[in-house]
């Protein structure tokens, strides 16, 4: 079997890694859309934990327990080749734990602090993220490692997560709503001469256009999504274990944790992303 797959590769035939992408909600779709651009031939399994959404205000233990259980539930159903924790909040808390228990490569997303220090001119950087992310030791360590000579201004905006979620559920959201959420911060951004804002939550790139419209023109919004997509591609190319890869494509699948009437309003967007198989996941 292994030899067959290597021969297939040599003949340039396709193989399809099974890739799990997990978030509390729709934020992970912003990562998915970058990954699928450079890796169209993969079997994607997108899981969103709408039962415990939002993660950003929950306790550390709760999030760890939740994420480990969800990954385990999917792990039992599929031969996973790559796991992407497409949520800053969950990555910061669970990556090291997950890597102890699950053997396949696990990629997380964390705020692009290092990149921001390379791009800022004023040295004033805003970090827009959830409360859990901003209060984590992980972020403090990242700042100590890469940004001691810069000012990182924390901007906590849990309401923005809800708004991004609403947008993809087809609800009308307005610039005024975002302005109201960021009212205090908009003043701070100007007073402190912030020129770079890190989108430290995967939900926020879904509001990039709106944010760009209400922020001063010179402010650049950055995230690590493209870098993550490259990392996934690199892992697939480097894999020494192609024997685990599927040689047939399977339809992309979505799993949700809570059955509720909000699911139906998300279906058009999931379909647009190429997810037609949408199922309930029981833990
Ligand atoms: N999308 C998640 C993140 O990147 C968090 C959203 C939430 O609070 O659930 O942090």
Overview of this protein structure:
By secondary structure, the chain is of the alpha/beta class. It has two domains: 2-109 and 226-280, 3-Layer(aba) Sandwich (Rossmann fold); 113-223, Rossmann fold (3-Layer(aba) Sandwich). It contains 13 helices and ten strands. The strands form two sheets. It has a six-stranded parallel beta sheet with strand order 4-3-1-2-9-10, sandwiched between helices. α13 (262-272) links the parallel β9 and β10 (277-280). The mean pLDDT is 93. Bound molecules: D-glutamic acid. Residues 23-25, 27, 53-56, 87-89, 130, 133, 161, 201-203 line the site of D-glutamic acid. The chain crosses the membrane at residues 78-98. Provides the (R)-glutamate required for cell wall biosynthesis. Its EC number is 5.1.1.3. This is Glutamate racemase. It is an enzyme of class 5 (isomerase).
Tell me the layout of helices and strands:
Blueprint: H1 2-10, E1 18-23, H2 28-38, E2 43-48, H3 60-77, E3 82-85, H4 88-101, E4 106-108, H5 113-119, E5 124-129, H6 131-135, H7 137-146, E6 151-156, H8 158-168, H9 175-181, H10 183-191, E7 196-199, H11 208-214, E8 220-222, H12 225-238, E9 253-256, H13 262-272, E10 277-280
Helix pairs in contact: 2-12, 3-4
This protein binds D-glutamic acid (DGL).
Family: Belongs to the aspartate/glutamate racemases family.
InterPro entries: Asp/Glu/hydantoin_racemase (IPR015942), Asp/Glu_race (IPR001920), Asp/Glu_racemase_AS_1 (IPR018187), Asp/Glu_racemase_AS_2 (IPR033134), Glu_race (IPR004391)
EC number: 5.1.1.3
């Amino acid at each position: 079997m292994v030899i067959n797959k290597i021969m297939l590769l040599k003949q340039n035939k396709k193989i399809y890694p099974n890739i799990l992408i997990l978030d509390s909600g729709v934020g992970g779709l912003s990562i998915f859309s970058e990954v699928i651009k450079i890796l169209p031939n993969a079997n994607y399994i997108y899981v969103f934990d709408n039962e415990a959404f939002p993660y950003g205000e929950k306790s550390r233990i709760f999030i760890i327990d939740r994420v480990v259980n969800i990954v385990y539930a999917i792990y039992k159903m599929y031969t996973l080749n790559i796991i992407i924790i497409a949520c800053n909040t969950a990555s910061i808390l669970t990556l090291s734990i997950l890597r102890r228990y699950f053997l396949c490569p696990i990629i997380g997303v964390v705020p692009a602090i290092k990149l921001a220090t390379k791009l800022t001119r004023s040295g004033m950087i805003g970090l827009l993220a959830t409360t859990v992310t901003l209060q984590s030791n992980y972020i403090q360590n990242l700042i100590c490692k890469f940004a001691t000579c810069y000012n990182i201004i924390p901007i906590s905006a849990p309401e923005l997560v809800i708004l991004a979620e609403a947008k993809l559920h087809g609800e009308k959201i307005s610039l005024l709503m975002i302005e109201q959420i960021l009212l205090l911060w908009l003043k701070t951004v100007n007073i402190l001469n912030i020129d770079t804002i890190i989108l430290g939550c995967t939900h926020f790139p879904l509001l990039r256009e709106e944010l760009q419209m209400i922020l001063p023109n010179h402010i650049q919004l950055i995230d690590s999504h493209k870098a993550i997509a490259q990392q996934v591609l690199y892992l697939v190319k480097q894999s020494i274990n192609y024997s685990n890869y599927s040689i047939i494509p399977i339809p992309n699948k979505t799993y949700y944790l809570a059955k509720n009437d909000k699911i139906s309003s998300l279906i058009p967007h999931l379909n647009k992303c190429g997810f037609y198989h949408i199922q309930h996941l029981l833990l």
